[in-house]
Design brief:
Length: 123
């Protein structure tokens, strides 16, 4: 169970948001790999001891597999640069995971639109 915070906002949440901001900036400005498409960081989950961070991302243009390879290849560089920008006892090891929730949401939206467009059957 989490300890209640005086301000209602845990330190791990602040670190998570800082990692999101810094990684988004690093990927946008420093990642020169041509395989990487337009990568958007959607969320970051950080373990309590800050040893691991799972980074959820989407690719707006470009090949999803190629972008995944580019992120895996740049993982060490991104972690090194992140360590220069954030102040935590241990810079987390980065784990990149494609965020499929946007695609699932779009599929559900399409299914709802199709169901709404079908003629209603009356008894």
């Amino acid at each position: 169970m989490k300890k209640p915070q005086r301000n209602g906002y845990a330190r791990v949440d602040r670190v998570k948001e800082q990692i999101m901001r810094e990684l988004a900036e690093l990927i946008r400005t420093e990642l020169k790999d041509p395989r990487a498409g337009l990568i958007t960081i959607n969320d970051v989950e950080v373990t309590r001891d800050y040893s691991h961070a799972t980074v959820y991302y989407t690719v707006l243009n470009g090949d999803r597999a190629a972008s995944a390879e580019a992120l895996e290849h740049a993982k060490g560089f991104l972690r090194s640069e992140l360590s220069k920008r954030i102040r935590v006892f241990r810079t987390p090891e980065l784990h990149f995971k494609y965020d499929e929730s946007l695609e699932h949401g779009m599929n559900l939206d399409n299914l709802i639109a199709q169901a709404a467009a079908e003629p209603k059957v009356q008894d």
